[in-house]
Amino acid sequence: MAREVRHAATGPLKIDEDDFDDEKGNVALCLCGLSDDYPFCDGTHRATRDEKEGVVYRYKDGERRVVEEIRYADE
């Protein structure tokens, strides 16, 4: 399985105690790149549970699409 993920970050993110959840006391950082609250996890990764091996996916506007072909600019 592979996923097209685009990140807009241009530098590191400093996490401090203001980022801690008042109820849970923790911070979950997004590693899938799909969170609407990026860089924080919002649970969106659950949509990826049934992805198939060898398939490339793109998620846009909450919809999963299969990427048929990847072309690079220098090809």
Query: Which band does the percent of strand residues land in?
Result: 15-25%
Number of strands: 3
Number of helices: 0
Q: How many angstroms does the end-to-end distance come to?
A: 23 Å
Q: Give the overall shape, derived from the CA principal axes.
A: extended
Rg calc: 15 Å
Brief sketch in words of this structure:
The chain is mostly beta strands and about 80 residues long.
Task: Report on this structure.
Strand 2 (56-60) and strand 3 form a beta hairpin. It contains no helices and three strands. With 75 residues, it is an all-beta fold.
Write the layout of secondary structure elements.
Elements (H helix, E strand, L loop, with lengths): L1 E3 L51 E5 L2 E4 L9
Parallel strand pairs: 1-2
Antiparallel strand pairs: 2-3
Descriptive tags:
3 strands; extended; mainly beta; 75 residues; 0% helix; three-stranded mixed sheet
